[in-house]
Write a structure and sequence with these properties.
The chain has 16 helices and twelve strands. It is an alpha/beta fold and 635 residues long. α2 runs antiparallel to α6.
């Protein structure tokens, strides 16, 4: 073999070893099949690279085509290795949307630094490969005699046969457990969504338009207060059955309020969940990532400002995180403050700089005290976001200091109790701050004249039911089922077990106030039997639908499907269909297809049809910029 072949083989042997180590350490079921997939695919790619580079060497005069070829190869190698290492943290190889997520959540300096380091590594590898080739290949092997015809034929047809074999045989659900290259190749090979028998689908449209809260107030222009908690699942709140007494003030508030037992946020990460909540709009705008560019949206404070409310937005977080601030309309806010409002902040760095929640509550009390008018107040508290930072002397549960082995992505078994205690202490601290604001409203005689909403943007995971920790990975209930309590003056406290959407909170409050809803809202006053759409789109991409106690989930990259019966499978452990018509993507029928259609009498096809219909509606509206033709989104 010549030097080019040796170099190419060495590169892909190294990449194959890295992939196999990654798969082995993350091994689940069918590990042998995945390892075989890695070997076959990397081998085929290695052969293709050998063929291409040898051809470039043959036709190259001054070596510029060879340099360009090595530049492309170096980009692939760098991304491949970096993505594999990040796989240990994210549990799925870094997609293009994930790359944007990593960059967008950094400061401009850190993003620039990432680009500089990546560029340096890529160029260094490129020059190294180019130097070796120029010094050895051209001097020792005349380019026109590098390869014979038999080797060329082998290198052309062998990879093609291997690729066909892999595509036809390997289940799509194994792809994320293999390697970054395989993951992305399969992503580009995917065809359109499965075809559903849409006959009589209209019978499953929401026919019941009855409101969950059909209320008209007897008081004029009550205050409206939203208290948004961070990273708290409904199941981790005492009012929903959690065993520890960590929220005495919120529990007291709940005794006077309407409790929604099954409320769902729109997303499992803050930049989508909070913006969606406040604008009553889904954040899914393209297959990669929402960059909050110019398109129509309205906020509750826009409408209340038109009614002469004084409006305020006070947050402990830095809204530069993932460019959230770019989404908000700040012109109709009389007061807007996040952790970057002044030079002070209490912890964190870059776009993760935050204030202690007691400072935000203090500012909230000052705002209310200075306002002689009906007001809207949005308060965002952050202590319960990892790493659960709160001032000293707030630790109720001990031990509460995990070791250095604990991170956002990892909790060693020896640290589990300390991690739970730390998290519960943060919630106890947040509850204390909520109590300060609620007590002030009581003392000032404002409580009885206010609509008060307490909720959370998304949940938090401390137990690996679905591989991951913390939040931002999927649309399972521990990430999207959130607490929701609403105090409405004059209304008797009670519990509502109907599944509802946070997307509908703003329209519901405005409807109770008998105020007009913006045509830009995708939510509506809470209704019975409402379809609940969910999404996660950062390092992972999932979309989901809840309807009639069934949750239907689709991987936005691989089309892998999960279906759960929530009434019988609370923790979503039993996927009712492992693959959705998987082989149809390659025009091959299998027993999996038959199993899927055998479930038709359970109406599972309906859920897939409705979810894809919503997904395509979202994509088409933004891709075609339909608002330019004054078309209102109706998904």
């Amino acid at each position: 073999m010549n030097r080019v072949t040796n170099i190419s083989l060495t590169i892909f042997v190294v990449l194959t070893i890295i992939s196999m180590i990654s798969v082995f350490l993350k091994a689940k079921e069918s590990m042998l099949l995945v390892l075989l997939l890695v070997l076959l695919f990397n081998s085929s790619l290695g052969l293709l690279v050998i063929l291409i580079v040898n051809k470039i060497v043959k036709i190259s005069k001054k070596g510029y085509p060879l340099f360009f070829a090595y530049l492309i190869l170096s980009c692939i190698i760098f991304w491949y290795i970096a993505s594999t290492f990040l796989h240990f943290y994210y549990n799925s190889y870094l997609s293009f949307g994930g790359i944007y997520y990593l960059i967008a959540t950094r400061t401009l300096f850190m993003a620039f630094l990432v680009y500089i380091i990546a560029g340096f590594c890529v160029l260094a590898l490129t020059f190294f490969l180019y130097y070796i080739s120029r010094k050895t290949i051209f001097e020792e092997n005349p380019p026109e005699k590098i390869m014979n015809k038999k080797i060329k034929i082998l290198l052309i047809f062998a990879p093609i046969l291997v690729l066909i074999l892999v595509v036809l045989v390997v289940p799509r659900s194994y792809v994320p457990e293999s390697s970054p290259l395989i993951d992305n190749i399969f992503y580009f090979l995917k065809v359109s969504e499965p075809k559903f028998d849409v006959a009589n689908m209209s019978q499953f449209d929401d026919l019941n338009q009855d409101k969950v809260l059909d209320i008209k107030l007897n008081i004029e222009k009550p205050n409206v207060i939203f208290i948004m908690l961070e990273s708290i699942s409904a199941e981790h709140m005492p009012v929903h059955g959690y065993k520890r007494n960590i929220t005495p003030n919120i529990d007291k508030f709940a005794e006077k309020s309407i409790i929604f037992d099954k409320a769902y946020g729109s997303s499992a990460h803050s930049d989508y969940a909070q913006t969606s909540f406040l604008s009553s709009r889904y954040m899914l705008v393209n297959p990669l990532r929402n960059t909050f560019e110019e398109y129509p949206r309205s906020f509750i404070w826009d409408i209340l400002k038109n009614e002469n409310y004084t409006t305020a937005y006070l947050s402990s977080q830095n809204d530069n995180w993932a460019s959230m601030r770019d989404y908000y309309n700040l012109e109709t806010l009389d007061v807007y403050e996040d952790s970057t409002f002044d030079d002070r902040y209490d912890y964190g760095s870059g776009n993760a700089r935050k204030d202690y929640d007691e400072f935000t509550i203090q500012r909230s009390v000052e705002f209310v005290n200075e306002t002689n008018n009906s007001f809207f107040l949005y308060v965002n508290l952050q202590a319960s976001h990892y790493p659960y930072v709160y001032p000293e002397n707030n630790s109720v549960f001990e031990p509460s200091e995990p070791s250095a082995g604990t991170s956002y992505f990892t909790i060693p078994e020896s640290d589990y109790n300390a991690s739970v205690n730390d998290y519960d202490n943060s919630i106890y601290y947040v509850d204390k701050q909520v109590g300060i604001l609620l007590d002030y409203l009581e003392d000032a005689g404002l409580f009885e004249n206010s609509i008060i909403v307490i909720s959370a943007d998304h949940g938090e995971i401390l137990e690996r039911r679905h591989k991951n920790l913390r939040h931002g990975y999927g649309v399972y209930d521990e990430e999207v089922n959130v607490p929701l309590m609403v105090y409405i003056p004059g209304e008797e406290p009670h519990v509502i077990t109907e599944r509802v959407r946070e997307l509908d909170v703003v329209p519901t409050v405005l409807d109770i106030l008998d105020l007009p809803l913006s045509e830009e809202f995708q939510g509506k006053p809470m209704q019975y039997n409402q379809d609940i759409f969910l999404m996660t789109q950062n390092q992972n991409f999932r979309v989901g639908l809840i309807k009639n106690d069934v949750k239907y989930v689709i991987n936005g990259h691989s089309f892998e499907t999960e279906i759960y019966n929530l009434s019988e499978d609370e923790f979503e452990q039993n996927n009712l269909i492992k693959y959705l018509n998987e082989s149809s993507f390659y025009s091959v029928k299998s027993t999996e297809d038959e199993k899927f259609y055998e479930l038709a009498d359970e109406d599972f096809q309906v859920y897939g049809y409705l979810l894809y219909k919503w997904y395509n509606c979202q994509m088409e509206y933004y891709e075609e910029e339909k608002w330019l033709d004054e078309e209102v989104i109706d998904c």
